[in-house]
Amino acid sequence: MTGLRYVYAVCRPFRSALQAQLTGVAGVPPKQLTHHGLVAVVSTVPEADFAEAPLRAHLEDLDWLSTTARAHQQVIDALTAVTTPLPLRLATVFRDDSGVRSMMEAREDDFRRVLDRLEGRVEWGVKVYAEPESAQSPQSAKPTEPTETDRPAKTDRPDAKAMSGRDYLRRRRMQTRAREDVWQRAAEFAGRLHETLSSFAEDSRLHAPQNAALSGASGQNVLNAAYLVPRADSEEFVELVDREKDDAPGIRVELTGPWAAYSFTGEFAEDPEVGP
Fold first, then answer.
1. What is d(CA 50, CA 3) in angstroms, rounded to the nearest whole number?
2. Every domain of the chain and the residues it spans
3. Contact 75, 7 (CB under 8 A)
4. Residue 259 CB: number of other CB atoms within 10 A?
5. Cβ(78)–Cβ(259) below 8 Å
């Protein structure tokens, strides 16, 4: 099959077979390309979609990008189950096998250095969210129109309206304080949790808090961290997170993984790259 070479990851040779039904980007099964004792996991993709100009256009298409990212991640997940991959940037593409080998040779020392560091290790993600359970938006907290049964006599209505306005403002102040209290408690808890988990893990990374509008997650993200953990210690790490969880209302802890160590691969897994 002719086409360009899409590179998912570089790793050391591994014996375990990947899933027989595994497909990657563009629905094509990945294959191994060996060079100087390293393996590039690649698949063939159509030039009409992955040459430089169409690829640049596709990267602005969120639906196309999402589909490609899921296929890319599917291959990385399969590799993580059998070896320690060094994931490359999404949409790293080369003209042919020779271009891939040239890239591997040029960066061989860097690949070996990072693979030595990551060998036998996985990444776990931990997020902490502040979720004020009783907080309401000002719109939902506004006073409701009284019913005929509850409606006071006309002579009393001015005072009733004034009282209703004061109640509304008081509720808003209470809601604001409640949100601030939960956020402060969640931030303090997140700091303690990160310190504890960092002491257990071999390395850690703090990422910028996620934007709820983009992530779709409820609550305010106050901790977004990644931890590099030996695969053999993963069960103990998960138990540690469970023990450290705060039962206080309004605080939620989310644990994800194990993943390939994206957060610890330096420049290799950053923005999309189009190779020669």
1. 9
2. 4-119, 123-262
3. no
4. 17
5. no
The sign of the CA dihedral 233, 125, 202, 107 is positive
Helix 234-244 vs helix 157-200: angle between axes, to the nearest 10 degrees? 150
**Contact call for residues 92 and 273 (beta carbons, < 8 A):** yes
Cβ pair 138, 174 in contact under 8 A: no
The answer to whether the CB of 31 falls within 8 A of the CB of 101 is no
Helix (H, G, I), strand (E, B) or coil at 260: coil
In this prediction the pTM is 0.77
pLDDT in tens, the chain (276 residues): 579 999 999 999 998 888 888 999 999 999 999 999 999 999 999 999 999 999 999 999 999 999 999 999 999 999 999 999 999 999 999 999 999 999 999 999 999 999 999 999 999 999 999 987 633 333 333 334 444 444 444 444 555 455 577 777 767 676 667 667 778 889 999 999 999 999 999 999 999 998 877 677 788 899 999 999 999 999 999 999 999 886 667 899 999 999 999 999 976 755 444 444
Closest Cα to residue 50, out of 40, 39, 64, 34?
64
Distance from first CA to last CA of the chain, Å, rounded?
19
Q: Of the candidates 228, 227, 224, which has an alpha carbon nearest to the alpha carbon of residue 214?
A: 224
Sequence-distant (≥ 6) Cβ neighbours of residue 51 within 8 angstroms: 4
Measured from the Cβ of residue 29, the count of other Cβ atoms closer than 10 Å reads: 14
CB 92 within 8 A of CB 104: no
Q: Bridge-partner residues for 39, per DSSP? A: 11, 34
Token pair 């690949």 is found at: 111
